[in-house]
Write a structure and sequence with these properties.
By secondary structure, the protein is an alpha+beta fold. The chain is built from 13 helices and 18 strands.
Length: 426
Amino acid sequence: MSASPPCGIDFGTSNSTVALAEGTSSRLLALEGDSVVLPSAIFFSFEENDIRFGREAVRHYVEGVEGRLMRSLKSVLGTQAMGEKTAIKAQRWSFAEIIGLYLKELRRRGEEACGVPLEQVVLGRPVFFIDRDEVADRRAQDELEAIARDAGFREIEFQFEPIAAALDYERQVTGEELAVIIDLGGGTSDFSIVRVSPERRRRADRREDILASSGVHVGGTDFDQLLSMRKVMPELGHGTPARDGKRDLPSWAYFELATWHRINFLYTPQAAQMLKELRYDASEPERVQRLIDLVEERLGHALAGAVEGAKVGLSANDDYRMHFGLMNGSLDIAFSRGELEGAIDGAVTRVGAALDECLKLAGVGEAEISTVFLTGGSASIPFVRQSLTGKFREAHVVQGDVFGSVGSGLALDARRKFGRALAAAE
């Protein structure tokens, strides 16, 4: 084995993996105990003056350790927020620095798991970081590349995440297939139409086998936001009338609270004053007071996590009840699977339109698809899965490793991209 074997990193909106290229295969590395999946979360502990990652980060936050939890960092790439700094205790951090901390930790844990330096990497990327903005999309990749280089990676390449998933799936095929790869992640939904076969997987250049790729910036965190706006935010005053009865209350605060990476914008003196003005303007001020209490107690991320838990619960059950304690009272909300489906229906329609676009770009009809390969956490939502796979009535539906397929495929791609140098070193 080379002193620096190629690896693949799937830096996800919600979860991340690192995989090592080994011969003609790949191996996901244990990153947190025995788990090969590390939640994309960072916790800055004010009490212990240190930084925690993954499940430990979330656990510290949930247990009430004073500090700052940050998630969904990938969603910031390419946006204006990348040029801003956020205050964490006495220090101001750029989002590039915060993402860099996480990538350095991924690299460190990967090296600890395999016992060798990791310097050659293929990073996964969505088909579009930013919808309908080529300049911002390119900027997002450039930002991630610079962060990865600063994290210690010497050679950096990129691959579309659905293509990586196709490479992972191809290891199990026994004949020629025309597959649609559906990667439903936390921040994006991506698609590729790919020809796969045992013979094709031995080729170094697979460009002719990739008929089309498309994607849309809609994923699991968007479903969380939509469910929160539909079911939770009304309990805090969203959609209720102002005192004059001529209009509803402004929705800015509810949007911020329902959007994970924007919650911290509520934790400022300016926002606190605006919330007091919102309460004064409300016909039901007691609801807005709940919102103020929640923000003052810094429970925004905990609430977002509880809504995500409701979504996950509704993926397996028809009903779910959320009990969320506040200093003065609590939120006790009953959810139904039908309400989840109603909340996310428009977003799922957008995802389906992106899949239709991929078929159109490939020049193939739905009946020509022989296999549908699903990966990504949002593929676990029955309504989403059925809405997309139902287009392909004759196809074989394969459920891949929800969190590991992309990382495994990226490692296979790393073997191809860096294979010549690796063979020379060996």
